[in-house]
Design goal:
About 55% of the residues lie in helices and about 10% in strands.
């Protein structure tokens, strides 16, 4: 099938631009991510995607003093030497069209599974393995594993049928586009 049955000759850029036009308003961005996180957790439990109950995901708006540093979203993993397993996922409300487009409904599952859940679960796993031991590796996050696990979780959403279940060809398109973007980054970042 094509991404746009009405006009199968559209370029990837045209399809992307059309999809990103459909997003929440500034005051509804957080609500959109909360709804998506709930759907993702229910889906994960049902298909065995991962044990999301291992972390307590706290979602909220990015604090005002951090918004210049976090224009889109930010995940803060559970504290490494704490018994609490709170992971924070901050969403920055915005009116900036380019950033608002990133909050499009079709992209929130990809962003949420990667940033909110995969990074937090990877950090929690690393912390659990090091309980009671001083581990210098905990002080320096292995970004390769964290990003790799995020990409793996994104791909599982596609493979396990999340987007089919949500009847969202647009969401699957955005997930595949995110994978392509990361493939480009691997090539560019290693040169």
């Amino acid at each position: 099938t094509t991404w746009d049955e009405k006009d199968p000759m559209k370029s990837v850029r045209e399809v992307h631009d059309k999809i990103t036009e459909v997003h929440p308003t500034k005051d509804k961005i957080l609500e959109s991510y909360l709804a998506t996180a709930t759907k993702l957790k229910e889906f994960a439990d049902r298909v065995g995607l991962g044990d999301f109950s291992r972390i307590n995901l706290v979602m909220g708006e990015t604090p005002h003093h951090l918004r210049s540093q976090v224009p889109f979203i930010q995940e803060l993993s559970p504290a490494e030497f704490s018994d609490r397993k709170d992971a924070y996922f901050f969403v920055t409300p915005t009116d900036v069209p380019l950033i608002l487009a990133l909050h499009c409904f079709a992209f929130t599952p990809t962003v949420s599974i990667h940033e909110a859940y995969a990074h937090s679960l990877e950090s929690e796993r690393k912390i659990s393995q090091a309980k009671g031991k001083f581990n210098l590796g905990l002080l320096f996050e292995d970004i390769t594993k964290a990003e790799g696990y995020g990409l793996y979780m994104e791909r599982l959403l596609v493979r396990k049928g999340y987007y089919r279940e949500q009847n969202s060809k647009e969401g699957e398109f955005m997930a595949l586009k995110a994978s392509l973007c990361r493939a480009y980054r691997v090539l560019l970042d290693t040169k």
